[in-house]
Prior knowledge:
Layout: H1 16-25, H2 34-47, E1 51-55, H3 58-68, E2 76-80, H4 85-92, E3 97-101, H5 112-118, E4 123-129, H6 138-148, E5 151-156, E6 163-164, E7 167-168, E8 175-179, E9 192-196, H7 202-209, H8 215-219, H9 239-249, H10 252-269, H11 271-275, E10 288-289, E11 296-298, H12 302-314, H13 330-335, E12 337-338, H14 343-351, E13 352-354, H15 363-377
Parallel strand pairs: 2-3, 2-4, 3-12, 4-5, 5-8
Antiparallel strand pairs: 1-9, 6-7, 6-10, 8-9, 11-13
Amino acid sequence: MTIQIPFNRPAVVGREYEYMKAAVESRHISGNGSFTKRCHHWLESDTGCDRALLTHSCTAALEMTALLLNLEPGDEVILPSFAFVSTANAFVLRRATPVFVDIRPDTLNLDEGLIERAITPRTRAIVALHYAGVACEMDAMIRTAANHGVTLVEDAAQGIRAGYRGRPLGTIGALGALSFHETKNIISGEGGALLVNDAQYADRAEVIWEKGTNRSQFFRGQAEKYTWMDIGSSYLPSELTAAFLLAQFEEVDRLTAERMRLWLSYHEALEDLEKAGALRRPIVPPDCQHNAHLYYVLLPTPTVRSALLTSLRQSGVDAVFHYVPLHSSPAGLHYGRAHGDLAVTTSVSQRLIRLPLWIGLTQAQQERVCEVFKEALGVARPVR
């Protein structure tokens, strides 16, 4: 059947076309122009980070963290296996070894109670990935990182406008990475940002961002020559991307509120199925201020999930599963190692479904998604 309710639909919500036209007319559409600088200012003001740098993707921002940490072959980085490939690839590119640790069964975030046992003398960093815009248990991770002298990095790809105890995600670790991919809450098609929260990294981050040169300092009059200073790459997005993004930033309050309304609508509609044991809804701890990035459910078994996905697609609904565990992937087996059996990660990855959630999704469309759930599931055995 033709898909009638897509999983995602990117939205133009404000002055995107106007700003892109202005960027073209400015005759500066390469990176680090006026729209990029306005986006940097917005991010620094909104999050309170020490320095913000737009990137062409969250992947690029994570790669910059690996460069800033001066990783060497054999160094280890602790991260969840329930993650997108970029979370590991950024460090593998520096020939570091990702050490995969299991996730919590409630938030699906890195289990802070397992990190200590995974640390070795080669551990250089811990990566806190905030799944679905729900924060990791950051206080415990901060203590563990400090006790062992390792750096805490936040993969906050899904975390803009989410928080932990009132602090914006991406600003709690030394370095944080955001995504503005078209599936995220705030979008620019492709795009991301590095948030620098430890001042010792700020100047070097700008050099790495500018292909390893001091170009930005030179144009600010802070350097006599514009030259090659360090390793780096072309991590800047174009001004067209920045112009589109700025228009989205200006609508962030409205967009976040609308996503929260959609999230809560699903949460209320599926409550009876959870009470009947047919599925498990997302869990958000009290210390976490989530951003309604995505709505997922956990089914009792992989077989139930497969049958439900089939029913949804036959009904024109494009619901999808999520990560294939990195520790079981060909590259994960080759480049990384697993700490423990990662039983929660394996189980969750086989039972999770993400539901359509995007600006413009109608009440009737949401009701149709929930109707298919109720028709297909009935009452199953309890979900844990």
